[in-house]
Amino acid sequence: MTLPFEVGVVVRDLGVMERFYCDLIGCRAERRSRVPESVGGSAGLGGELEVVWLGVPSGGCVKLIRPRSAPVEVSAEAWSAGRPGLSYLTFHVDDVDPVVAVLAAAGARPLSDPVVVPAHGRRISFWVDPEGNVVELVDARGGRPDRGIVIRDTLQ
């Protein structure tokens, strides 16, 4: 690997998604581009693309990709985390509580009750972004001891 990891998320509403990931999650818009049909079409994304690269403060990048020539169908429901393929984006934060408060106030939907769950010495919280993608927040501070949640690290 020569550069930090990037993930691309195909979106319907670039403005809404950019505000969600920048204003609420803490990413920052680093550059914008139009990708010509000759590239977007060969990537299987339907033609010309509008792309915003969002820097993740800890490294890496989330690319928001909006096909300009083909509408993107999105379900209001969250994707099932048990389905094959990409299940969710994970963001590691210093303190999950202020992020959770902002997400709730902005109308994002939590996927668990309680909203923040202790797991393996961490605190985690799963949310749905405006287009139904699942977002996981991880806070390494821990909180109360795990009760009934067992996660084993298998990679050393």
Protein model, in words:
A hairpin with a 5-residue loop joins β8 and β9. Residues 145-156 have low confidence and may be disordered. It contains 3 helices and 9 strands, in the order βαβαβββαββββ. The radius of gyration is 17 Å and the shape is globular. It is 16% helix and 33% strand. By secondary structure, it is an alpha+beta fold. The protein starts with 5 loop residues before the first strand and ends in a 17-residue tail after the last strand. The chain has helices spanning 14-24, 37-40, 96-105; strands at 6-10, 28-35, 49-55, 61-67, 88-93, 109-110, 117-119, 122-128, 134-139. The strands form 2 sheets. Strands 5, 6, 7, 8 and 9 form a 5-stranded mixed beta sheet that branches. Strands 1-4-3-2 form a 4-stranded mixed beta sheet.
Major beta-sheet overview? 5 strands, mixed
Secondary structure category: alpha+beta
**Termini Cα gap:** 20 Å
Helix segment tally = 3
Order of helices and strands: EHEHEEEHEEEE
Count of DSSP E strands?
9
Using only C-alpha atoms, the radius of gyration works out to 17 Å
Oligomer: single chain
Low-confidence stretches: 145-156
Mean pLDDT: 82
Q: Name the beta content range.
A: 25-35%
Summarize the amount of helix as a percent range.
Answer: 10-25%
